[in-house]
Specification:
This protein is an alpha+beta fold and 367 residues long. The protein folds into two domains: 181 residues, no CATH class; 104 residues, Macroglobulin (MG2) domain (Immunoglobulin-like). Strands 1-6-3-2 form a four-stranded antiparallel sheet, with no helix packed on it. Helix 4 crosses helix 9, helix 5 runs antiparallel to helix 6 and helix 7 packs across helix 9. The longest helix has 26 residues.
Length: 367
Amino acid sequence: MRISRKDFLSSGSKYAAGAVIGAVAADSLMNKAMAGVNATWPFPYQALDPEKVRILGHDLYYDATYGGCCFGAFAALINASAAITGEPYTSFPSGLMLFGGGGGASWGGTCGAVVGSAAFIALVSAKADGSALESEVFGWYTQTKFPTNISNQYGVQSKYTQNKYTQTLVQNTSGSILCHASIAEWCKTAKLNESTTERKERCARLTGDVAAYTAQILNDKLASKFTPLFVSPAIIAECKGCHSNTITAKMECTQCHGDHRTSTTHAAELEGVPAGYELENNYPNPFNPQTRIQFSIPASATVDLAIYDIHGRLVRNLVASEHHESGKYSVEWDGKNNAGGKVASGPYFCRMQAGRFSSTKKLTLLK
């Protein structure tokens, strides 16, 4: 039988499409499919330097022959591995990942950097291990501010070989793995359109960031110390109301469809007319077990107020895209994440967005 397109895309490594094979076990099928590069699956993996991968991912995004987010992330990991291991990476055709650019042939689906990175994980991991690692990359992407501080710093310092833009770029958390949602949210935050140099550089830096995180968790897995950090938001269970219960899903829908829930966290309105936008320092700070956060808006606006950890990952939505009239408001955080679990002690950040206003405050949980 002929290897199907579905099998090709799902494994990320069955590259000898068209080979005639018999009815054999999955591992045997994979090994025959990889015969063109004289290798068996999974490929051998040796620890990579995440920072070298980050720079490679950024620069390969701009590759004149191939380029793009999916190719950039995948080829960064392949090339870094080739430099250490040699074959089978040296002759692997990374160009096959061109299909994933722009969310899949520019259809705006899953971010190509995620697809390319997940494909590399599938290439070097047995199925049981790969699934957890791939899920971590997907989840981490939805809760991380891009570009990261590291990639912004590299841009300012001209550490890349492709230095298209050497200033700090606006950061945002898209909350979605979808290319169109991720780019739209960033453009809205940066007040730029998608055709600008800044947006392209944002995606280049993001590509390096995702590839670097992939190398990091693969290194952790190799050292037997990988622990998944992503926790699915509680709202996902409610998405089954629109999508059939037979569908397996981990993706939050509010970025595209709004928040249809009755929030369990309410911002109480205070007296007084605010003179401008303001996010006040929480009180008490440090705190245990809860703290109060006050914010003001001088005109009606859609407000987002959320807690992030020191790695930029979303911890808790306190006010999730809710419309508020002008006024002063107060909301409490009880030291729990979106799944209802208590978070570890340490520093956190509260970020508020309302219209064009954005502000971040540091808060510390003590136990």
